[in-house]
Amino acid sequence: MDPTTLLADHPLFVGFRPAALEKLCAASEVRVFEPGEAIIRQGEAGRFLGIILEGRVEVLGRDPDGGERRFGELDQSDCFGEISLISGEPTTADVVALIPSRVLLIPHRVFSAVLGAHPPALQHLARLVTQRLRQQLPQATAPTPQPTAPPAAGVGEHLATEVKVLVIDSGTASLRYSYHDINCELYSREGVVEGLGRESATYTLTALRGKDTRPVPGTREGALEAILNSLLGGEGPLATTNDLSVIAHRIAHGGERHAGPVAIDDQVVQGLREMLPVAPPETPASLAGVEACRKLAPGVPHIAVFETALYQSLPPSAFLYALPYGLYRESGIRRYGCDGLTHHQAALLAAAHIEQGLEALRLVTCCLGPISSVCAIERGRAVDVSTGLSERGGLPGPCWPGDLDPQLVFHLCRSHGLSIEQAETFLAEGSGLQALAGEEGGLGELWAAAEAGNGRAELAMDLFA
Q: Of 3.30.2350.10, 3.30.1330.30, 2.40.10.10, 3.30.420.40, which CATH number belongs to 164-306?
């Protein structure tokens, strides 16, 4: 089949003009693979998106014990290789031809420039990636079989059509979530519970019909139970929690063990607990949220995504401190970085916007907010970051001073009689840009005060810039 003809009817290329499809095909390669020949090998860097023009292939992976696992077969018009291209991580499976197969290989640079700048294509790929990641989870994390919807026509007929994702961000005093039904955006919603640790907390739910605020228990488990209940029954889009495809948890610190997302089991939780001495202060709250959610929704796969994963590509010269090397080897003291999910997404969107492949770019990405950071990304890999052992290093923020001469902390303790705990509280609550400006608020409020003529606020903004 002619590639342009197949792509014209392909869900991934809905809305593309014929001239654009012809240009894409001209920049791509068509190859024939014989039975048993590998098209992609597990562990390789993502180099292309493959679309089967004719033939049939199988997808093979490896279990943690080293045994081979067969994920399924792909046939005409199915695509593969998208997870590695989007995530930047090595491929997680072999793709091998079963019969003579003609495959269109769309290079990474063309994928990023053309598909990455087309929202309907990204939405289709998001559905595909979510379902395939769910298929790759160890079966032990999802003991309850889930009913599947009728197979979709066309691309990915082997995939279920319903993908429902709950994302949890469990903080120290608040808990945020968002719910996404990939096939029906009308059901999408988000919410926040504020005031955890008190007798009663406040739950604000935002959906298409507007906002709703209600009191909920102030415990983490009680707040999560209220969130799950709001997704069920007549009020919500789910019949039971088992209707969820996956629950994803944002975790601030994955250390050196996790360079990408991971299916959560008891061993993963224990490993995260072992890293608590060098983890940011909110990490225990994240773990408590994971454990409470696994208890409330035991039949749903849980996945952890880490803010530190992006920085596992940092060279030692960027992540080490000028301290005895044993402190790194024995205690894990190093620069871990933060906001990695935001920096990675910013780099991907920037590459798509300027229609160039991420692997060809050198970027500085900026995450500006209550705690700000900047990251240097070279050819898709982080090579330096402003934050350090925790997110409080680097740039100053409204409530945190950023990098300081360590002698200053010793001076505060000696001259003002502060204990280590009191010095930490002073830096966390009595410092930052708003302390310098004499104004309360975030960056937006401080900027407005500077523009209104507040000289100290203007000084604070100059310092930040």
A: 3.30.420.40
